[in-house]
């Protein structure tokens, strides 16, 4: 199985994860998810495989989070997923899909267990 990194090169943690993967001699498939945005179904699947809730996988620090009113507890997972797909900067990063599973690698060292 290929290792896939949902990568934002402007993110320090994402760059650290890439370095850890490459340091193990693995050349991952890099998905620039801000441009190659996952659909709602794919995003929900990856979040679920990582063992997270949708709220765990959304970036609360992004201005778009507050601007869209996404802290509202009445919003459903579907509402949040739609917002994340519409504005992918809201997707927490970096996600890694690897032979050992799927993980949101924050902190970066979490990637080692799934390679």
UniProtKB/TrEMBL annotation:
This protein's record includes keyword Oxidoreductase: yes
GO molecular-function terms, A-Z: arsenate reductase (glutaredoxin) activity
Pfam families recorded: ArsC (PF03960)
PROSITE patterns registered for this protein in UniProt: ARSC
EC number: 1.20.4.1
Keyword set, alphabetical order: Arsenical resistance, Oxidoreductase
InterPro entries: Arsenate_reductase, Arsenate_reductase-like, Thioredoxin-like_sf
Catalytic reaction equation(s): [glutaredoxin]-dithiol + arsenate + glutathione + H(+) = glutathionyl-S-S-[glutaredoxin] + arsenite + H2O
GO biological process: response to arsenic-containing substance
Enzyme class: oxidoreductase
UniProt similarity note: Belongs to the ArsC family.
Designated name of the protein: Arsenate reductase
